[in-house]
Amino acid sequence: MKKRTLAPLSFLLATAHLHAEGPESSSSLWSMIQQGGWAMYPLAACSLALIYIAIHCYRETRPKNFAPPSLLKDLRTAFETGNVPSAQQLALGSQTTLGRALTSALPKLKSASSPSELESFETEMGAALSSEESSIAQWIHYLSVVANVSPMIGLLGTVSGMIGGFQTMATGGMGRPELFAGDIGEALITTATGLCIGIPAMIAHSVFNNRLQNAITETTRQTNALIDSLPPEMQGREKQVHTA
Question: For residue 239, which of 10, 94, 121, 179 sits 20 to 30 Å off, Cα-Cα?
Fold first, then answer.
């Protein structure tokens, strides 16, 4: 009976001792990282990857990178007059999605275009826009990878911490909670860190994916408007550009 009484008493005393020392030991971020154990290193890599990829996706999905109004104004003038060489020069001098797509597609369009040439131009333009979309979308996809991997690494760290805690208990630490408090701390910190990285990554993936889709849709709409502005003799038929 005496042993049963002493065990809870020793647990309370050890817990009070941990609370007394807790604020001082956990006051620094570095001490929490150290307590998190090995899983904090890949989680730190995931957090750096999240920051870099998010900044890159933000820069790549800015509206001015797709079809800026100044370029559209000059291109419309060239298309309305059927001046294909002038449109090619404008496209070559523009480092935008629309400019790169037109650079690839305009050689299919001659100054006196036939219906087959216009069809080739539209097909090439659609393929070029689809390729531009894919090159940006792959970076956005990496955000989804970070969002999925980070909580899993945190969970793995949690499992590792729990295993260490049970091993400590198995070697006689049941009456001394301070021995396996570090293992429990590792389990909780890695889980929280993984979620703190994964949730923003998931939100960023959704935001940038929507930005990309809206930008590509607007660029396609502007491309169709340019095709419709060609002189009647250069339009053999009406057709919309579709991206894959």
Answer: 94
Report the phi/psi class of residue 83: left, alpha or beta, with left for phi > 0 and alpha for psi in -120 to 50: beta
Q: How far apart are CA 127 and CA 138, in angstroms?
A: 17
Place of tokens 């020069």: 89
The DSSP letter of residue 239 is -
Q: Is 237 exposed, middle or buried (0-12, 13-18, 19+ CB in 10 A)?
A: exposed
Distance of alpha carbon 99 from alpha carbon 72, whole angstroms: 10
pLDDT tens digits for range 74-108: 999 998 888 888 999 999 988 899 999 999 998 88
Sorted by sequence, the CB contacts under 8 Å of residue 103 that are 6+ apart come out as: 88, 91, 92
How far apart are alpha carbons 122 and 244 in whole angstroms?
A: 13
For residue 87 the two structure tokens come to: 């449109």
Q: Cβ of 83: how many Cβ atoms within 10 Å?
A: 15
pTM value is 0.74
